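note to self — DONT lose this again. spent like an hour looking for the file last time. sequence + predicted structure for the chain T wanted, 302 res
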Amino acid sequence: MKPQNPARALRSIRGYLSPNLQRHSLSRSTSLRLAPATASQAFSSTTSRHHNPTNSTVDPTEVSHFNALASSWWDPHGPSRLLHLMNPLRHGFITQCLSSSPPASHKLRFLDVGCGGGIFAESAARLPSTLSVTAIDPTPEVLKIAEGHKKRDPILAAPGKLTYLNTSIEQLPRPKTPTEAYDVVTLFEVLEHVHAPGPFLEQLLPHVKPGGWLIMSTISRTWTSWFITNVMAEDVLGMVPKGTHEWSKYVNEEELRSWFAKQPGWGSAKSLGTMYIPGLGWKEVSGGEQWGNYFFGVRRDA
């Protein structure tokens, strides 16, 4: 499985090596030059204020793929192993974002979009600072696994503590008032699996409470990320089932910054590069968002 356009990928990598990008700061809120690649063009051209919310950005082939992996979701040594290992970094990045500009709420309400089997949703619901977690996913078989695993913990069974919904973000009712929105909306390893990232993100924004955070993780569209995720992880090491990743759907960090810079009412963004190192697990990597996985958080103005 090779990138759809290697020539553009090579130009993208050369762009990353430019002096301007080498001086890029993780806390910088200004947009950077877009890498010249197919997904970049799709990101900008499909983002429309008039996007019909009934037209789902969910890719049916992705739903089928993850349905097939449902039974192994909670196997820490199975196909979802990398997600289990990444979970501590997820919480660490959320803590960094909230520490820099905490929401007004003392007890946080989470919306976890594309929750899968509930690895993050369960861990977030157990935190003493969490009031509730609503977790949504369009994949029915995976949510059955999530519901079954939830029943093992009496804490999670408390009314309203952790709620799973088999739905897409387009079908989720929008908050009627700011108080009905969420303090933290999370989107972990989802953006690289949707049809059109721009319209998809537009559906997320109204669910974030003023002063709240939208926090996600995804994969940069670079030659290195293709080699790591498609060649090594899927084909060579077999750590991830084949067909899990489509390189052309990856979204670069500066593309997200540029997109959010055009959205009224959204503050400075934060990002954190990460990389999986065999034998050591997931590690923070300076500048890692240019080459592989990265976390990205943006705050809605209060």
